[in-house]
Amino acid sequence: xxxxxxxxxxxxxxxxxxxxxxxxxxxxxxxxxxxxxxxxxxxxxxxxxxxxxxxxxxxxxxxxxxxxxxxxxxxxxxxxxxxxxxxxxxxxxxxxxxxxxxxxxxxxxxxxxxxxxxxxxxxxxxxxxxxxxxxxxxxxxxxxxxxxxxxxxxxxxxxxxxxxxxxxxxxxxxxxxxxxxxxxxxxxxxxxxxxxxxxxxxxxxxxxxxxxxxxxxxxxxxxxxxxxxxxxxxxxxxxxxxxxxxxxxxxxxxxxxxxxxxxxxxxxxxxxxxxxxxxxxxxxxxxxxxxxxxxxxxxxxxxxxxxxxxxxxxxxxxxxxxxxxxx
Length: 327
Hints:
Layout: E1 2-7, E2 11-19, E3 24-33, H1 40-49, E4 58-63, E5 67-68, E6 71-73, E7 80-82, H2 83-90, E8 95-99, H3 100-108, E9 116-120, E10 130-136, E11 140-147, E12 152-156, H4 169-182, H5 194-206, H6 214-222, H7 226-235, H8 240-264, E13 266-272, H9 275-278, H10 280-283, H11 287-293, H12 299-303, E14 306-310, H13 315-325
Parallel strand pairs: 1-4, 4-8, 10-13, 13-14
Antiparallel strand pairs: 1-2, 2-3, 5-6, 6-7, 9-14, 10-11, 11-12
């Protein structure tokens, strides 16, 4: 029996599993609000106390941040993680920390075809080239699964913090606007994330691209999650400004997904994270693929890349579980 976790800036999912890589069975699972806890060790202790005693042999946690030497400073939480300290605190013989997108990438290999929405249904079958994973959520994560001829090997990255590269006059204006907010360096995460949706909305509003209705302005002032309100209004067709926000978000998401596919010559691109399933209808309406294919001379190459949106938000947890089963 072993422990696995998906540690995000907003929520943390912990589960105990039984079995092996071929057959995983969930024994107990619990979700925590990350910011309400001072550390991952505190969450793990709460989980272990919440039910019958578990005889655990190992644990693996996918964490939102750069993992070096078994240590990680989380990107969107004030946590310092150390695999050795977690092992001592939880009484576990083995603990491994993975970048959350490494874990998600491994998890994509575990999902059934019915757990994906196809945005571009072409490309060769898996086991025939590299795979790319991009996931917008609290932040923006990117990873690659390198095919070595026999197995997929996950490669973590911090590509979400790379420079935002505008392609159109509108996007150039967006970059200038965001430079005024964040300074010289504007990353893709500033536009492709939960907070990024709000950033795009404010740019379009302040640029006069559509009027902001009073009911929406009042709602945004009171909302703890303005991006969720913007998304809801845009999906429901209640407001033109919100609709434009989601369209631009989808186009930029496609553009960066295409960049990632080119960087690793991916045969498949998987969209993960919490935002994509909620915006499935927007991502499937053509805006995403226009951004994805807008690569000039290499547009033809990307037409042959399969693009699939994961509908299972537990992919990172499953990937961490499979990793734990091998420890």
